[in-house]
Structure formats: structure tokens, C-alpha cells
């Protein structure tokens, strides 16, 4: 038996040598993505129709002066280069806190609905790996997407796990929605975008992103009118916006749904507020599909325990009720809350994906609350039903409900059964971060909230 071992090893070596000879020249020239010249932070978004187009964005060092997307219908065979098509990217440079980078964006159009494509990005000797995306079918079809609240802080160390576990739990998600505060300092890469995109890694290359700006995506988190240049360089979103609000207030129509992003950070400015309101009303009136989802960053009601209570956007609240919008997806409060306010719909969801957590103010409208959890939301869509799950980073269901539509368009809310006990422990540093009166009243407020629900 000992005499056979060297022969077996020689066969393995020969096989490996034969495989290397089959690699194409272009593949041999591809350099490790650890080099700044190599494409990185590669991500999919939509600028135009998801059924016939795909937008791609990426970053390189500023030594790279141009970029190209190569794409082809996906095949099981690895020998597809002969059919590859190319599209040139628009390239711009921006100097941030770490260095000057080149940002590349391209929008591939003329694609076939319901079709999987392979693609890579780069130029010269520097290329990404090949990845895949699939265009929307363009008609009614059951599908899923994922919603994330704020990631924001400790992104690479802990925020990354919610991104990855969400995809492991929902591998067939068609896209991801982020409700703002993806990062903490929107004008910086270090500890911000430099952690966010590596934190999700290949996920961003394979699953498109829809995002609404949070206050921390702005140069000044309290301003609302200075959305960082890095937002526009990193993402390529639709231009179907009010004039001057491109790529921050917009909508994406995916099959039978419309996802509307509103940059409500600009609400404080009268002209912006009116423009966003009029555009939103028109977007709701004209849509003829089955479901509308609206996402913006600030929760409709301030729920963090150290914030003043109150409805932030009263005229928008009335508009959403007028048009019977089923579901509003928000963040900012760094906790979980779900409920309805003064009408059967919308259902308002406030969620948090990252590790930075706040203690909750138990508002009367809340039907389910949660603290001290990293969460993602899985949403199943069919023509007559929305099935919503909020899940922990471990994949456990924390909240669940359905919204069912009958033939006349009437909506019915059905809460999930056998939901786990609510996680309502205050944050680890609760007593250090909050005023004494807010700390001392917490137990009483929590008891009143739970008693109210029992009744």
C-alpha cells in the first residue's frame, strides 16, 4: 500500500497543473482586491427599471482613470467570455478622510426580464471577481426582500453579522432596503463606508440595495440639506425625484410594488417639505400596482427615552392614512417598535440593525416593542398578502404579522401567534446615558405598557 501514495500525489499535482493551463489570460491578470487599484466596494442598485436594467457602482484608487462593466447571460459553463458585452462607467474622484478615490458608476440597460447575468467590473489589469444578478420578472410574482434599520456604529465588528445572517436566513431575497444611518459619519470612509461595504462583502455585489438617507449620511447630522458627496458617489439611485432631490427622494417599482424613499431630513425647510409632500402625493395617486412601501429615516413618533414625544410629520401621516399605505419602514430610534396610530393603516415599523441601542419610551400606539436586539425584517410579497417577520440576528422570529387584501382592496391586519416574550431590558449603560428621572421611571412605564397590552 505504501507504494501507491506517491503515485496518487503525482496524479493530484498533474490535475492541478492541467486546471491552471485552462485559465484565460484575463483571469490570470486579475489582481488581489487588497490592492487599492483593484475594484472594491462593488454594489448593485437601480437607476431605472429592475426588470430591464441594473446599476453597478465601485471604487478604486485615483490611479485608475476609467472603468468598465463586462456582463453576459449566466451559464453553468465557466467558458462564457466569448459572449461578454461591455459598458463604460462614469468615473469621478473625491478626496475624503483617508485619500483620494475614483468612483465608478454604470447603468446596464436593455436586459431581459427574469434573467440571471454574470458580471465583473474593472479596467486594464485590475478586475473584480465574476458575480451574478437577476432582473425582475416584471409581473406579479411572490418574492421576498429584507429591511434593515440603522447599522451606523461598530459596523465591521458587529453590524456585519446582521447583514450576513440576514442573507443566510433569506438567501432568495430580491433586494435590501436600508432605512438610513448606514454609517455614523457620512462624509468619512474610516470606520464608516470603509467598514460598511466590507462588512457586507459579496452580498452587495449580488443583491441590489435601496437606501434612504439618514441624518448621519449628511455632512452635518443636524442639518438635513448637506447630504454627503459620498452618498452620491457610492450609490446610483433613480432620478425620478422632485427637482433638486435626486437620489434621495425617489421610488423604485419592482414587479407589483413601489418602494418610496423620502429624505425627511429636509422636512424642516418649508420649500423642501412642500416639494416632497406634493411629489409623494402624486407618486401615491399614479401607482396602479398592488403594494406601496414607504421608507424614511426618522420614525413618525420619537421613541428613544431621552427624546421629546410627538408626531414629527403630521401632514405626511394624514397623507399616508388617506391613501391607506400599508407599511412604513423607519429607524433612527435604535430600538424596535411596531404599531398603528389613529387609523387601521399604515403599520409603522421602527427597527435597528446595528449594536448601538436606546432605551424606549412606551408610546400608547405601540403594539409590540423591543430593545437590546440586532434585528432584520423579512417581508414576503404576493398580490394579495404581505407577510412580515422581524427576526433577531440569530434568525429567531421576534415579531410577525400579515396584511391581507380582498378583492375590493380592503386591508386586514393579522398579528402572528405565539410570539416570544418582549425583550424590554434597558441598554447596558442605561444609568450612565440617561437622566435619573428617566432611569427611575422605566420599570413603572414598562409595567403600564404590559398591562395596557393585556387589556
Describe this entry's structure for a reader.
The protein has 455 residues and is α+β, with helices and mostly antiparallel strands. The chain folds into 2 domains: 28-134, Purple acid phosphatase-like, N-terminal (Immunoglobulin-like, Sandwich), CATH 2.60.40; 143-454, Purple Acid Phosphatase, chain A, domain 2, CATH 3.60.21. It is built from 11 helices and 23 strands. The chain has helices at 4-22, 25-29, 155-169, 189-200, 203-206, 229-234, 270-286, 314-322, 430-433, 436-440, 442-454; strands at residues 40-45, 54-61, 68-73, 85-88, 90-95, 100-108, 116-123, 126-127, 131-134, 143-148, 176-178, 209-211, 250-254, 257-261, 291-298, 327-331, 336-339, 347-350, 366-370, 375-382, 385-392, 397-405, 411-415. The strands form 4 sheets. It has a 7-stranded mixed beta sheet with strand order 12-11-10-20-21-22-23. A 7-stranded mixed beta sheet has the order 13-14-15-16-18-17-19, covered by helices on one side. Strand 5 (90-95) and strand 6 form a beta hairpin. Helix 3 runs parallel beside helix 4 (189-200). It starts with a helix and ends with a helix.
Amino acid at each position: 500500500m505504501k507504494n501507491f501514495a506517491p503515485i496518487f500525489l503525482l496524479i493530484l499535482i498533474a490535475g492541478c497543473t492541467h486546471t491552471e493551463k485552462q485559465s484565460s489570460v484575463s483571469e490570470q491578470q486579475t489582481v488581489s482586491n487588497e490592492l487599492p487599484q483593484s475594484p472594491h466596494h462593488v454594489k448593485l442598485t437601480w437607476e431605472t427599471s429592475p426588470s430591464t436594467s441594473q446599476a453597478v457602482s465601485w471604487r478604486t484608487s485615483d490611479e485608475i482613470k476609467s472603468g468598465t462593466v463586462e456582463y453576459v447571460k449566466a451559464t453553468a459553463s465557466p467558458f462564457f467570455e466569448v459572449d461578454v458585452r461591455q459598458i463604460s462607467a462614469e468615473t469621478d474622484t473625491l478626496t475624503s478622510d483617508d485619500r483620494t478615490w475614483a468612483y465608478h458608476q454604470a447603468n446596464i440597460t436593455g436586459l431581459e426580464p427574469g434573467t440571471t447575468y454574470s458580471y465583473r467590473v474593472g479596467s486594464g489589469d485590475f478586475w473584480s471577481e465574476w458575480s451574478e444578478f437577476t432582473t425582475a420578472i416584471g409581473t406579479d410574482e411572490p418574492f421576498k426582500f429584507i429591511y434593515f434599520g440603522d447599522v451606523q456604529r461598530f459596523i465591521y465588528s458587529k453590524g456585519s453579522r446582521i447583514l450576513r445572517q440576514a442573507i443566510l436566513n433569506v438567501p432568495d431575497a430580491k433586494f435590501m432596503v436600508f432605512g438610513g444611518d448606514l454609517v455614523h459619519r457620512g462624509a468619512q470612509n474610516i470606520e464608516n463606508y470603509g467598514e460598511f461595504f466590507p462588512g457586507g462583502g459579496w452580498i452587495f455585489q449580488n443583491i441590489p440595495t435601496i437606501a434612504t438617507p439618514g441624518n448621519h449620511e449628511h455632512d452635518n447630522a443636524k442639518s438635513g440639506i448637506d447630504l454627503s458627496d459620498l452618498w452620491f458617489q457610492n450609490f446610483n439611485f433613480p432620478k425620478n425625484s422632485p427637482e433638486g432631490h435626486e437620489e434621495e427622494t425617489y421610488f423604485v417599482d419592482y414587479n407589483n410594488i413601489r418602494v418610496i424613499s423620502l429624505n425627511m431630513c429636509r422636512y424642516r425647510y418649508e420649500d423642501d417639505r412642500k416639494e416632497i409632500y406634493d411629489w409623494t402625493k402624486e407618486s401615491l395617486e399614479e401607482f396602479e400596482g398592488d403594494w406601496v412601501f414607504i421608507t424614511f429615516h426618522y420614525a413618525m413618533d420619537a421613541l428613544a427615552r431621552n427624546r421629546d414625544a410627538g408626531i414629527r410629520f403630521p401632514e405626511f401621516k394624514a397623507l399616508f392614512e388617506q391613501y391607506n399605505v400599508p407599511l412604513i419602514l423607519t429607524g433612527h430610534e435604535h430600538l424596535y417598535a411596531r404599531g398603528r396610530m389613529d387609523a387601521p393603516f399604515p403599520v409603522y415599523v421602527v427597527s435597528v440593525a446595528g449594536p448601538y441601542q436606546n432605551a424606549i419610551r412606551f408610546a400608547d400606539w405601540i403594539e409590540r416593542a423591543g430593545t437590546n436586539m440586532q434585528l432584520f425584517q423579512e417581508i414576503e410579497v404576493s398580490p394579495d398578502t404581505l407577510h412580515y417577520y422581524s427576526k433577531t440576528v440569530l434568525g429567531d422570529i421576534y415579531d410577525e404579522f400579515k396584511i391581507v387584501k380582498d378583492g375590493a382592496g380592503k386591508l386586514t391586519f393579522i398579528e402572528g401567534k405565539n410570539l416570544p416574550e418582549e425583550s424590554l431590558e434597558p441598554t447596558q449603560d442605561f444609568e450612565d446615558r440617561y437622566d435619573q428621572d428617566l432611569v427611575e421611571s422605566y420599570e413603572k412605564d414598562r409595567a403600564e405598557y404590559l398591562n395596557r397590552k393585556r387589556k
